[in-house]
Design brief:
- With 274 residues, the protein is of the alpha+beta class.
- The protein folds into two domains: 21-112, no CATH class; 128-272, no CATH class.
- The protein has helices spanning 45-54, 171-184, 195-208, 215-220, 226-236, 239-252, and strands at 21-26, 60-65, 71-75, 95-101, 104-109, 128-132, 135-139, 153-158, 161-166, 270-272.
- The strands form three sheets. Strands 2-3-1-5-4 form a five-stranded antiparallel β-sheet. A three-stranded antiparallel β-sheet has the order 7-6-10. Strands 8-9 form a two-stranded antiparallel ribbon.
- A hairpin with a 2-residue loop joins strand 8 (153-158) and strand 9 (161-166).
- The longest helix has 14 residues, at 171-184.
- It starts with 20 loop residues before the first strand and ends with a strand.
Length: 274
C-alpha cells in the first residue's frame, strides 16, 4: 500500500512533545521509496529548493525499537525542525499502533488533536466545525451554489461565458458536493448509489482541505465512520443552512403550509467557525 496523498506538510507543532503521528519501518535505516512522498520536500531540484526554504525535510530517528521485534526507523511527517529526537519514540502507553502493511506501522499519540495537523499553507477562512472525541475539525462547504461555499474559486471562460469554478486542487471536492446535493434533493439517477467506499473517500478529501493527513492516518485517528460520513456530507452541501432557509420560506407561505423536507441534521455539531 502506498500513501494516498503526496507531499503534504503540517504546521510546526511544539518541539518537545511526542510526535502526534509516527511511522515505524521495521529493520530500515532510511524511508522506503514507496513511502518517500509522505516525507520531506517534493521530488526534483526545484521541489527540494522549496523544501529547504520552507524548512521541510526528513524527520527521522534510526535504530529505534517499535511495536514489533527488532529495531527500525522512526519517521514523522512534517518539518525538519519540528521535533526534538525524543519526540520520535515508541511509547506504547501514550500511543496506539496499527500495522498498515508488512514492516510498516503507524502510531498515533493519544493526545493528538486536530490542531496538530492544520496545514501550514492554507486554512480556509470559514469552515464548519465537526466535533469528535479528538476535538473540533474544520470542514469546508464545497457546493458552489451554497450560500456559505468557501472553497477557493476562480473565474474561467467556459462554453462561451464566464463561470465560477473551483480553484485547482478543489475540483474533486466540488464535484462530490454537487453529487451529494443531487442525491439529497432527488435529482440524481435512480441507480446513483455512492456506496461506503465513495463516502469514505469524500470524507478524506474534506478533511484534507484543512489538514495534512492521509486516509490511513485519519482512520487511525478514529474519525472515519458512518456518523462522520453523514456529518461531512451535510457540511459539504451546507445542508443545515438550506434546511433553515426552507423552513423560513415554508413558515411564511401560509397558503401552502409546506414543510421542510430536508434530511435530518447529522449527529455531530456543524457550528460555523467565526
Amino acid at each position: 500500500m502506498q500513501p494516498d496523498t503526496d507531499n503534504i506538510t503540517a504546521a510546526r507543532p511544539e518541539p518537545f512533545k511526542l510526535a502526534p503521528i509516527l511511522y515505524w519501518f521495521a529493520g530500515a535505516d532510511t524511508i522506503p521509496p514507496a513511502w518517500r512522498a509522505r516525507f520531506g520536500p517534493p521530488a526534483g531540484i526545484w521541489g527540494r529548493l522549496r523544501g529547504l526554504l520552507r524548512g521541510d525535510g526528513d524527520v527521522t530517528r534510526a535504530g529505534q525499537r517499535g511495536p514489533a521485534d527488532g529495531v527500525g526507523l522512526m519517521a514523522a511527517p512534517g518539518r525538519a525542525d519540528a521535533y526534538a529526537p525524543k519526540a520520535l519514540s515508541y511509547e506504547p502507553e501514550a500511543q496506539a499502533w496499527t500495522q498498515v502493511e508488512s514492516g510498516v506501522w503507524l502510531g498515533v499519540a493519544h493526545a493528538a488533536k486536530p490542531a496538530d495537523f492544520v496545514r501550514s499553507r492554507i486554512t480556509l477562512p470559514l469552515a464548519y466545525i465537526l466535533s469528535t472525541d479528538r476535538g473540533d475539525w474544520w470542514i469546508p462547504v464545497a457546493l458552489l451554489t451554497a450560500e456559505h461555499c468557501n472553497i477557493p474559486c476562480v473565474d474561467a471562460f467556459e462554453l462561451g461565458a464566464w463561470r465560477r469554478v473551483p480553484a485547482p486542487g478543489y475540483e474533486r471536492l466540488a464535484v462530490a458536493a454537487e453529487r451529494l446535493y443531487r442525491i439529497e434533493i432527488g435529482d440524481a439517477a435512480d441507480d446513483d448509489d455512492p456506496g461506503p467506499a465513495w463516502l469514505r473517500d469524500t470524507a478524506i478529501l474534506a478533511f484534507q482541505a484543512n489538514y495534512a493527513l492521509t486516509g490511513p492516518e485519519l482512520a487511525a485517528l478514529g474519525v472515519l465512520n458512518d456518523d462522520t460520513y453523514n456529518a461531512v456530507a451535510a457540511i459539504l452541501t451546507d445542508r443545515d443552512a438550506r434546511a433553515k432557509k426552507n423552513a423560513e420560506s415554508a413558515g411564511s407561505d401560509t397558503s401552502s403550509g409546506a414543510a421542510d423536507s430536508s434530511p435530518d441534521t447529522p449527529p455531530h455539531s456543524t457550528t460555523p467557525r467565526p
